[in-house]
Design goal:
The complex is a heterodimer of chains A (256) and B (325). Chain A has 256 residues and is an alpha/beta fold. Chain A folds into 2 domains: 207 residues, 3-Layer(aba) Sandwich (Rossmann fold), CATH 3.40.50; 31 residues, no CATH class. Chain A is 29% helix and 28% strand. With 325 residues, chain B is of the alpha/beta class. Chain B has 2 domains: 180 residues, Rossmann fold (3-Layer(aba) Sandwich); 123 residues, TPP-binding domain (Rossmann fold), CATH 3.40.50.1220. In chain B, 28% of the residues lie in helices and 28% in strands. Chain B is built from 9 helices and 18 strands. In chain B, helix 5 runs parallel beside helix 9. Chain B is elongated. Classes of the chains: A alpha/beta (256), B alpha/beta (325).
């Protein structure tokens, strides 16, 4: 099988995010960068498919020079080769531009299935998989928590509000991974050594021949609205405090 | 020239979902500022009768695509049908719900229409005649103001955040041919496994009682279930609790789980790791119950109780029961 997994480098979930004084973005200085957690599920599923059915796994990422670390991480987990779409023109890429860059990099490659994370935990857009599927004229399965390969198709479980859907989709298709799909492996030491020698093809905007102007622009970044300071409820007994909170929720907050 | 504020209404099993009314009410506000009409796209099978309900929330025209090929929801079919009527009528703004289905469709449509989409917005307004969409980034650690220069300017709205306003109005119903060829669809829904617990999804709950590491184990959640039952709410969990296997994945609140905005969020034995705060900070009221007075969760809480949750929660349950009796 020819399997592709798209990855993005994002700030770690524990990272404090500081907005630049001029609102033009975030301060990147102190941030620890990691592979987007949802992309890890995609890479893991890609590796499991390969281990079961043979074939190879190609990692594709759009991002600045540091994103190479994330590609190497995926190669260390067991992927075979990488494509790094790297160009300052993509610094302000939105989901559409990112998907277009991925599509341009993937087009022409033999491909049975493409994995993406269901969303990246930085911009939280959750659009790239769907736009990529549209641009490559493939069906999409978003938010997948279980995947079974059945030859020319896959069967997937997708949770929706209050239900789960079992869907069958013809290959090739784009699958976006949700937590629960699998437990991603850690890269082994030999894996990390091997990854250094695996091929990664670096491409710029000109080589892909796509426009890099974002369609949805972040005009301004702001800190979250501050919450007014709360009250610590005093009292001697747990019961007394509980009764007071219940009263406040009823009379002051009016939410119960 | 593109004009009109449109929504994609969401229905399931022949009933409109609440997000549809939130979308309609929000679209009405924006349209009034622009002096334009509100249009709604309604897709499904045997759903024409639902169109009139949208008028009550301010929709002027409902474009109904009614066909067996549109039920159950399949991304490709709905995206194709919606794109067809959008290309024909050229609305300036298009709002969808940031529900599971809404987000799935929104991404595909943005691709088809080659336009910009702001996901999971918590505020939308008109600035200089254009849509200004405000949305959390990094799960709410900061916010972005999004502007789109192509039409339709798309945004998906976070459920439970935008108010619903009823007005008296009759919507005009316009039927259109969705133009979807069933033979060309590559996906098929084989089975719908309904959750039989009768609970709504966390993202749609008005009250969430959530437990973390302080619950000490899966059996600890029983007292949270009891409180949630009294408040007609749902039980959520922190990443620590889910990773420990105490609660199912679908209950996780936080940056790598669900982002929720209930009217009331009660955090029990949750210290308030930044990735958890990211998932619940947009709740309208937050109560924190934790033994550790230094826990970061108290900085976000409207009401805090520093005490043993195993003593406080049962008392809170009986106090609420009395108030609601």
């Amino acid at each position: 099988m020819n399997i592709i997994a798209c990855v993005k480098q994002v700030p770690d979930t524990e990272a404090q995010i500081k907005v630049k004084a001029d609102g033009s973005g975030i301060e990147e200085g102190q941030i620890k960068w990691v592979m987007n957690p949802y992309d890890e599920f995609g890479v893991e599923e890609a590796l499991r498919l390969k281990e079961k059915n043979g074939g190879d796994v190609t990692i594709v990422s759009v991002g600045p020079a540091r994103a190479m670390e994330t590609i190497r991480t995926a190669l260390a987990m067991g992927a075979d080769k990488g494509i790094h779409v790297c160009d300052p023109a993509f610094d302000n890429a939105d989901a559409y531009v990112t998907a277009a860059a991925l599509a341009a990099a993937i087009k022409g490659m033999p491909c049975d299935i493409i994995f993406c994370g269901q969303r990246a935990i930085d911009d939280d857009s959750g659009q790239v998989g769907a736009i990529l599927a549209e641009l490559l004229e493939m069906p999409q399965l978003t938010l997948v928590t279980k995947l079974d390969f059945a030859g020319s198709s896959v069967k997937a479980i997708r949770p929706i509000e209050g239900a789960q859907l079992l869907i069958e989709t013809a290959l090739p298709c784009v699958v976006t991974a949700q937590k629960g799909l699998n437990e991603p492996r850690y890269a082994s030491l030999p894996g990390i050594m091997k990854a250094k020698k695996k091929p990664v093809d670096v491409k710029n905007a000109a080589a892909l021949g796509i426009a890099s102007e974002a369609k949805a622009k972040v005009a301004k970044t702001t800190p979250p609205p501050a919450r007014p300071p709360g009250k610590i409820i005093c009292g001697d007994e747990p019961a007394q405090k509980a009764v007071e909170v219940a009263r406040l929720l009823r009379e002051e907050a009016k939410v119960i | 020239m593109a004009q009109g504020v449109w929504i994609v209404a969401e229905q399931r099993d022949g009933a409109l979902r609440k997000i549809s009314f939130e979308l309609a009410s929000t679209a009405r506000k924006l349209a009034d500022q622009l002096g334009t009409e509100v249009g709604a796209i309604l897709l499904g099978s045997g759903i024409e009768g639902l169109a009139a309900q949208l008028g009550k929330y301010g929709v002027d025209k409902v474009y109904v695509g009614d066909s067996p090929v549109l039920d159950p929801y399949i991304t490709e079919a709905h995206a194709e049908a919606a794109a067809k009527i959008i290309k024909e009528k050229d609305p300036a703004i298009l709002l969808l719900g940031a529900s599971v289905q809404g987000k799935d469709l929104a991404g595909r449509l943005a691709g088809k229409l080659a336009t910009g989409l702001a996901t999971d917005c918590t505020e939308v307004k008109i600035a200089d005649g254009k849509l200004l969409a405000i949305r959390p980034l990094y799960a709410g650690k900061c916010f972005g103001e999004i502007v789109t220069n192509t039409n339709p300017q798309m945004a998906s709205l976070r459920p439970n955040v935008f108010p619903v306003a009823e007005i008296t109005k009759a919507a005009e119903v316009v039927k259109f041919d969705p133009g979807v060829d069933a033979a060309k669809l590559k996906s098929k829904v084989l089975e719908v496994q309904k959750d039989t617990s009768g609970k709504v999804d966390l993202t749609e709950a008005n009250v969430i009682v959530s437990g973390g590491r302080g619950m000490k184990g899966p059996e600890g959640y029983q007292i949270l279930e009891e409180l949630a039952d009294v408040l007609k709410g749902c039980v959520g969990a922190s990443r620590a609790a889910v990773d420990a296997g105490w609660r199912p994945q679908k209950d996780q609140v936080g940056q790598t789980g669900k982002v929720v905005s209930p009217n009331l969020y009660i955090a029990c034995g949750i210290s308030g790791a930044i990735q958890h705060l990211a998932g619940m900070s947009s709740s309208k009221y937050i109560v924190a119950i934790n033994k550790d007075a230094e826990a970061p969760i108290f900085a976000k809480a409207d009401y805090g109780i520093v005490d043993d949750l195993f003593k406080v929660v049962p008392e809170l349950t009986s106090a609420c029961k009395k108030l609601l009796a």
